[in-house]
Amino acid sequence: MSSPLDTLEHMESQPENPFAAFVDNQLIAILPTFTLENGVQIHQAPVAYKTWGQLNQAKDNALVICHALSGSADVEDWWGPLIGPGRAFDPEIFFIFCGNMFGSPYGSASPVTMNPEVGKPYGPTFPPTTIRDDVMAHKVILDSLGVKTIQFVVGGSMGGMAVLEWAMFGSDYVKNICPIATCGRHSAWGISWGEAQRQAIYSDPNYCDGYYSHDKPPNTGLAAARMSALLTYRSRHSFESRFGRKTMQPKPLSEELGQRAESLSQYETAAMYHNEGNKIRLHYTNGKGRPATTSASNSSASATTTSTGNGNSTAGMDTVQAIEGEATGLSSDKPTNNSTTSNNKKDDTAPPAVYSAQSYLRYQGDKFVKRFDANCYIAITRKMDTHDVARDRGMSYEEALNSIVQPSLVIGVETDGLFTTSEQYELAEHLPNSEIVIIDSFEGHDGFLLEFDQMNRHIGGFFRRKAPEFYKEHEAIVLTAEEMKSKASKTGEAEGDVLMW
């Protein structure tokens, strides 16, 4: 990594933010004061970034890469096969920069970083930010590093939104762009998916309007949001071909309840199986009174005071017992434990099938909550909602795109159901100096993070055509099957083998 100039203060770590440690060897610059697009000023604002390669003498060999929703500044983590000598992102040719966006938990100012005015993390008080804010902040960093000209800006999904905002600086500063699987303005479809995911977080009792603690976060809601998002990142064919109707071995009740499982009635057993997979349960020790709520993100629970609906309180009820992710009791009108079938034999209801597709979604949700924050997820999805290159620029959407005169390579994914190919063709139609490529992939939106060979060929070819002067002594390489494999990502959107769980 190259060293930054000493024009901005840098910090080495963020002790208040455990998520920043997921990114190795990043730098965190401190902006003394930064004014957001909405006029709000944030002070001592951290901006995390990574660089590869060296800035040339002319200071015109910069390559800016923009990350997606849950990504970080570490391009090697989520686009690893594309970076290296002879590859599309060649550090022997380019000075490569990737900045972490505001709202992300991976180092830049966000709900999990410190608000210097109060001496604690922002939490839900973190001000709304836009894609345009990110681009402006990252330009401050590039200015401090001495960059005069950006040869290429590349990014997919939310990163592609940033690519289009970078282009608005004009062709004297940004020479070429490559927006991937993205849009010039966020669609009603995308906004709706973001809203559904936020509502999943809000519904978690641990959310507490965003004022939750690190040791009791709304992990169940965040996991549900992630599961919902994953369905927009892949395609129906991707899931059908890998999972179909395959099932997992069901977990017997005795594994969770021990000997108590033997005493359950057929109705209690049915209710337990009915709630298989439910991670927020209403629990009882003896069926008396109204329930208290617990979340799977907090395995120990105590009795709480709740309204009974008639103005009375349930303070002093029996202690609630919870097993994380599994029920330990039933409602107050449960049948007695001696319910039997007509032949006086207890009905041993078979456990419900747990389909492989269900298991995969649960695994991904549980994995995600270990590396992401719920308030950050809300902040970033709201940021995406605001994206519109024409906003407050005094021109129509089409006029805004027409004003982007730089050579552009628009890349879409054939099976993308989130940022559809029609949106990519719309971009290409209105960007006056554009070409378009549609990636052949069954993987849906995530194809741009998984089809490394196609991405490397198309992006690298575009670079060579538009900036041949940088390639006089550099040959392109063809990625082997082994080289196309990415390491296990800490912060990336996609996993190549969805059966690895």
UniProtKB/TrEMBL annotation:
One of its GO terms (molecular function) is homoserine O-acetyltransferase activity. Residues 61-449 form the AB hydrolase-1 domain. Keywords: Transferase. The keyword Lipoprotein does not apply. SUPFAM superfamilies: alpha/beta-Hydrolases. GO terms for biological process: homoserine metabolic process; methionine biosynthetic process. Residues 292-316, 331-343 have a biased composition (Low complexity). Residues 282-351 are annotated as: Disordered. InterPro entries: AB_hydrolase_1, AB_hydrolase_fold, HAT_MetX-like. The active site is at S157, D416, H445. Belongs to the AB hydrolase superfamily. MetX family. This is Homoserine O-acetyltransferase. The gene is MET2.
